[in-house]
Amino acid sequence: MIRLSFNDGWRTRPKVNPFAELGGASVPFEEVTLPHDAMIGRRRVAQDGEATMEGGAGAYFPGGVFDYRKTFSVPEEHRGKRVVLEFEGVYRDATVYVNGDYAGQRPYGYSLFRVGIDRFLRFGQDNEIRVEARGHRDSRWYTGAGVYRDTWLLIGEPVRVSPGGVRITTPEIDAEGAVVEAATTIENDSMEIRTVDVVTEIRDAQGTAVASDVSKVTVLPGEPAVSRRRLYVREPSLWSPDSPALYTAAVTVEDAGTQIDSETAAFGIRSLGLDPVRGLRINGRTVKLRGACVHHDNGPLGAATFARAEERRVRILKDAGFNAIRMSHHPMSRAMLDACDRLGVLVMDEAFDMWTSSKSDFDYSLSFPEWWERDIEAMVAKDVNHPSVIFYSIGNEIPETGSAAGAAWGRRLAEKVRALDGTRYVTNGVNGMLAVMSDLAAMMREKDGAEEGRGINTMMADVGDAMDRVSSSELVTRRTAESFGVLDVAGMNYSEGRYAQDRDLFPNRIIVGTETFPTRIDGNWRLVREHGHVIGDFTWTGWDYLGEVGIGRPQYLSPENPRPGHTAPYPHLVAGCGDIDITGFRRPASYYREIVFGLRTRPYVAVRRPEHHGKTWAGGPWTWSDAISNWTWPGFEGSPVTVEVYGAADEVELLVNDRSLGRRPAGEEHRFRAEFDTVYEPGELLAIAYQNGVETGRSTVTSADGAVRLHAEADRPVITAAAGDLAFVSLTLRDAGGTPHPMADRPVRVEVSGDGVLQGFGTAAPSTEEGFDATERRTYEGRALAVLRPTGPGKIRLLASAPDCEPAEVLITVEEGRRP
C-alpha cells in the first residue's frame, strides 16, 4: 500500500463536554504536528504539600482526556480503494472517529493499530478525523498522553500486500549460504477470484539483488493467501552487534504484467542458540548481555517519539558499553527497533506491566482479559523482521506469577508468542518478593520469630537485601517454579541470590537478570561471567526517566529526614537512577559500569559534593553517590572533600596539583574503586592506574579558571526535513580553555528562527518547576539541552544568551530528505 505521513495539520485541546460547550464553555484548539505529547506541556502541581492524583509516579503531571482533530481530503479517484489509518501509539484508551462516526479503538497505549476508514470517507470532499486519548492514574511511570507516535495514511488496491504482511525468517545458515524464507500475505477485497504474480527480491546493503523468485498466487475474495518462497543467499553477511549487516526484501504484486502493489522489509541474517552451558549464542558465538532497562520518554521531549531521538538514545547507550536494551515495560517503538537494527543493539521487547492484577487505579488490567491477544499479536507483528529482537518478555513483576492461576496465564501468553514467532525466546521479568507478597508476613514471622508486621518492617529497611533474600527462599523456589518453567529464559528482577543455587536446583534453567540494582553491577557481572546459565544483566536504568521521582536521589540522615522515603515530594521530576541523564549526558555510574564490563582501562575521577561531607549516607540501592567529575568548587577552598577513583587495575594513585596522596587498591577485589580524602584547592586532580606496578592509564580533572563562557554545539551541522529528524544543541558553561564550569549555573534563554522550531528545552535537574516548553531554563551542573525540529529545507538559527556571558549561536542546515 502507498504509505503517506499523516503527522501534519492536527489540532488538539483537552476534551470538552459538548453540552458544556453549548453553554459557552469553549476551549481553543492548539495546532500541532505529530508525534505530540499532550501531557508534557501541562503545569505540574501539588496542593498543600500533597501531590495531584497522578503523584510522583507520573512526575506530578496531571492526567486528562485529550481531543485531536485533523481535516483532510481524499481524491475521487481513490474511491474503491482501501484506505487505512495506522497509529504507532496513542496513550491511552484511544477512540477514533471519522466524520463523526465511530471507526475503531485501542485501550492499550503502546500497541500499533490500524483502522479502516474508507467506508466513512467523503471522496473529493473534506473529512475530519477525531482521536480521543485518556491518561489518568493508570501507570507507575510518566506515560505522556495523546498521539505520541507517528501516524500514517495507507492507500491500496483491493488486491494488495497486507500492511506489515512481509515476514522474513532465516531457517538455515552456514558459511556458504543462507536460506531466506519470505512469507507474504496477499489480501483480496474484490468480488472475484484473482491470480497475481508475487515477485520477491533480496537486496544487500548496497542495493544489489542477491536472490529473487516469482510465484503465482490465487487469492479468493475475503480470504488472504500467503506466498511463501525460500531464497538462497550466497556468502551472507551475518547480522551481529559487532557487524549489524542488513538486507532488504522487496516484494511486488503484479497483475498481467502491471504492478499493483509493493512492500519492503529490512531484515538480518543471524542465528540464535541457547543452552545452560554455553548460554546465549549469536551466529555460534557466546554473547553476554550488557543490558539497559529503558522507559519510553525522551526527557525534554516527553513521550513524543521522534526517530532521531530514538537513534540518538540507542547510539549513546551503545557508546557507553551497553549491547542490549530491555524496553520497560511495554512494546518498543518502531523507530527504536530500526535504530537497534542499524547500530547493532540487542532487544528484549516487553508486552505488559500488568495482567489481571492492577498496579494503578485505572491501568491496563481493566482491558487485559479482552485485549491481551490482540496486543501480543501487534507486538510480534511489529518485531518479527527485526534481527535485533532476541527476546519477547510477556510481563514485568506480575504478582500472579506466584500462583497456579498466574502460571496458567503465563503459559497462555508464552504459547501465544511461540505460535506467532518461534524464532525468538520467551522470558518474563519475575520479582520473587512480589510473587509471594501475600505470604510475606507469615514467612517473616516464621523466619525472624517477630510479632506480626515487625518482620516486614525490619526487612524493608534495606529493600535491596530484602528482595534478594526473599527471592532466594524456598517459598519463592516452590511458588515460581511453574511460572519460570513456561519460559525459555527465567527473567529475574533483583534476584541475583538465585543465580548460583538454581544451577543445582534447576540444571536446565537459563537466567537473565531482567532488572538489577545499579550499585551492584560489579558483583552481578562477576556472576554473569562465572556462570554459563546466566546470560546477562539489565540495570535499572540505563537512561534516566520522568516519574517514579527520586528513587535514585542521594539522601542523608538528619533531624529533618530521619527516615528517608522511597520517592520524593513535589517538585521532583526524574527517577534519578539512570547511568545516563535525561539529556543524554553520562553520569559517573556509566563510566564505572564501563570499567566493570572490561571496556575501559583508564581510571575515572569523580568528586563528592563538599557541602555533604561528613553527613550520614542514606541512599537506597538505586542510588549512586552525589559525585560528579568536577574540580571547581567555589566557596569551598580548604574544605574537606572525598574523591572517588574507579579503575580495573590493581592500584590507583591520586595527585592533587602534583602532590601524591598515595596509592590505594582498586580492581575487582576492591569493587573497582578507591576513595581519597583531601581538601579542595583549585588546580588539577590526576589519577593514575597501575597493574603489577606498570601504569595502564591516567585521567585528569581540572578546575575552571576565569570568566564563564556560554558554548553552544549541535550534534550535527546538517539534518534533513524528513519526518522524525531533529537537531540536539548542547548548551554548556565553560572557561576560555573549554573546561566545564558546572557550579556556575544561571538562566539561559534561547531564540530559534528560520526553518525550524524549538521542540523541547531542558536540563537534568532532578527537582524543578521549570517546563520543557519554556524558552528560558536555568542550567544544571552547567548544562542544558535544546531540541530543534525542522519545518522544511533551509537553515535553523539558534541564539543562546545568559547573564555575564557573550551570546552563543548555532546555524544548522536542513536538507531535503526521506525517513529511512
Can you offer a commentary on this structure?
The model is unreliable at 48-53 and 450-461 (pLDDT under 50). Helix 2 packs across helix 3, helix 4 (368-383) packs parallel to helix 5 (404-420) and helix 5 (404-420) packs parallel to helix 10. This protein folds into 5 domains: 2-156, Jelly Rolls; 159-267, Immunoglobulin-like, CATH 2.60.40.10; 274-543 and 578-593, TIM Barrel; 602-608 and 631-702, Immunoglobulins (Immunoglobulin-like), CATH 2.60.40.10; 709-815, Immunoglobulin-like, CATH 2.60.40. A hairpin with a 3-residue loop joins strand 13 and strand 14. With 820 residues, the chain is an alpha+beta fold. Strands 23-24-25-26-27-28-29-30 form an 8-stranded parallel β-barrel, surrounded by 5 helices.
Morphology: globular
- Termini gap: 17 Å
Main sheet specs: 8 strands, parallel, barrel
- Structural category: alpha+beta
CATH architect. name of the largest domain: Alpha-Beta Barrel
Helix content: 10-25%
Q: Radius of gyration, rounded?
A: 28 Å
If you average the pLDDT, what whole number results?
95
Query: How many strand segments?
Result: 46
> So what's the CATH class of the largest domain?
Alpha Beta
Note poorly predicted spans. Answer: 48-53, 450-461
Strand content: 35-45%
**Count of DSSP helices?**
13
Query: Widest sheet: strand order?
Result: 23-24-25-26-27-28-29-30
Organism: Actinomadura rugatobispora
Domain Glycoside hydrolase family 2 immunoglobulin-like beta-sandwich: 169-270
Domain DUF4982: 638-696
Domain Beta-mannosidase-like galactose-binding: 66-134
